[in-house]
Amino acid sequence: MRNRSLLILTTVVTTGALTLTACGSRDDKGGSDNTAGGTTVVIGVDAPLTGSLSALGQGIKNSVDLAVQTANKNKEVPGVTFKIEALDDQAVPATGKANATKLVGIKDVLGVVGPLNSGVSQSMQADFDKANLTQVSPANTNPSLSQGDNWGKGEFKRPFKTYFRTATTDVIQGKFAANYLFKDAGKKKVFVVNDKQTYGAGLAAIFSDEFKRLGGTVVGTDSVTVKETDFSSTANKIKGSGADSVYFGGQYPEGGLLSDQVKKTGAKIPTMGGDGIFDPEFIKASGEANDGDLATSVGFPVEKLPSAKKFIADYSAAGYKDPYAAYGGYSYDAAWSIIQAVKAVVAANNGKLPDDARAKVTEAMSKVSFEGVTGKVAFDQYGDTTNKQLTVYQVKGADWADVKSETFKD
Prior knowledge:
Layout: E1 12-15, E2 18-21, E3 39-47, H1 54-73, E4 80-88, H2 93-105, E5 109-113, H3 118-130, E6 134-137, H4 144-147, E7 163-165, H5 170-184, E8 189-194, H6 198-214, E9 217-223, H7 232-241, E10 245-249, H8 252-264, E11 271-273, H9 280-284, E12 294-298, H10 309-318, H11 328-347, H12 357-365, E13 369-372, E14 375-378, E15 389-396, E16 399-407
Parallel strand pairs: 3-4, 3-5, 5-6, 6-7, 8-9, 8-10, 10-11, 11-12
Antiparallel strand pairs: 1-2, 12-15, 13-14, 15-16
Helix pairs in contact: 1-11, 2-3, 5-6, 7-8, 11-12
């Protein structure tokens, strides 16, 4: 994968007797080179930059990079230059935990965007919280990350004060999907499959509960293993169950293959999933035509949002090799929320960072509010986004087409 270098803009800002140079390079220990009086703030990025989910990870990294370039170009925080430190977690929790340790150890890191996967995030949260280091995920949807393990029992308790996200939770996404499949698509008998991972299993459970509450029937359940490719046993169970649809909790590599193998049994029924399958690679993974397959994703289609026009144009002009993909807009907004928190902290401290900058940035995050790429960006008492917009997409030929968007009310 290409490692795109950052565009560093050097400017000099004079405020009274203090001259701040908006540049700075990290030394081997991750500290700022402040010999010229400059201040550098690093925004960490953790995402799968290689492997089967790299299409999403690269979009996350590039979108954060674009936010950083924009902040530097516009001198968003006078006297401060932003940089990124991007680490590859390969969608593996243990690697994510190691990355969290590394980012905590770089003293200039005042916020981290990522990761993609909820399971990876679980391995990182405690390290960030102990270090008072803000984390903003553009893609995590598992409710327990922000509302505690007992959220399903109606007991809501925020586990980590440093955790925020710009993506809505699976409580919303799972119910939204069930409502669409039952009411709009008219499906009454669904077979539910998950990939045994935190995100997939959690989403499938929420979907199933809501589908049954609406009057539908879950005619069977099964699980598959990540990175395996032969799902013929599950596909045959689905065929024999008489299901009129499949719901898959997981990611696009397995989801695309499952859809393919279900259709090869002769069961011409749609496969539906969450934002984890909403990617062009889902379509490419299936050798059989999978027109009619469905996916939900957080937010409204970025391409149709007036607020996203500049982001799309700037991303294209920047010449990134990889597309911004499903989470580009949310990643830009996640990075921009950190930048705005830093701006508030600097403004409140006479134009410079305080010694306890990480703790102050975390405090400032709860008050962040701005019109972003994806709409209004703000966080509730759990660190969850207040933006609960979702969209259903359907495979039509070689592309995903949006078929329904709404602000979901639980």
